[in-house]
Fold this protein.
Amino acid sequence: MRIILTGGTGFVGSALVPKLLEHGHSLCIGTSRSNEVHHLPYSNQVDWFPLDLCVHGNYTLPQGSFDMLIHLAWPKLNNYLDAAHLTHILPAQLDFTSQVLKRGVSRILSLGTCMEYGLVEGAIPSSHPTLPVTPYGLAKDSLHKALTFLAPIHNARLQWLRVFYLYGNPPRKGTLLHKLHAAIEEKLPGFPMSKGNQIRDFISMDQLIHEVFWYLNHPDSTGCFNLCSGTPISVLDFVQNYLDKHNLNIDLEPGKVAYPEYEPFAFWGVPDSK
């Protein structure tokens, strides 16, 4: 397929793009960092176009026809509470996806977030109502709801994949595992963290890519779905298991960091049947 893809230089995109190329797909990738793409191993295997989703209308769509949009990009993931998610990024996202639909793509596969669910507890199916409590979660939820109306108007299919707690190697900057690696590299005596007894659902990058390809190859599976492991685990156990698996060593210091107020204490995803 001929695919427009956003976020091709990001955490997910840098892992997904090589797999898409291996399967013979033709990619045109939007980026706001065109001066940095030359070092990517796939820089000469794809087409690029300028795309800044922090600024409304700051892009030029590529010429030609495309079969689908794979939409990964979302700026300012280092701060879920930033009002810009609503005031700047959401309008830019709506404008961009609307213009892509007008160009005639027949499919959109977009990553959502478990933060759309809000302060829920327990096992969460993808049919659970959304009640986000952060600007980021609300902006993502709003884009999803808008696309559920816009896609049918343009005879396009929508697959909205809500990602739970994603981890990969190397870890995404600003995440718990990134901070853990930084502490080890700096040879700190210990790693301060929360008590770690909150329950989460961690999904590996390998599993996420496997899931994305399943939906990519099943265009009739439309709607909203969870991308999750379905396995609840405490944050402390997850971190300790990660250290053991990668032969890393540092003393954990639970209780030194406060819990985020915008996250529920215990929740995990229910995988959708396939």
User: Anything to note?
Assistant: The first strand starts at residue 2 and ends at 6. The chain has a mean pLDDT of 95. The chain has two domains: 2-165+202-227, 168-200+231-269. The CA atoms of residues 214 and 274 lie 9 Å apart.
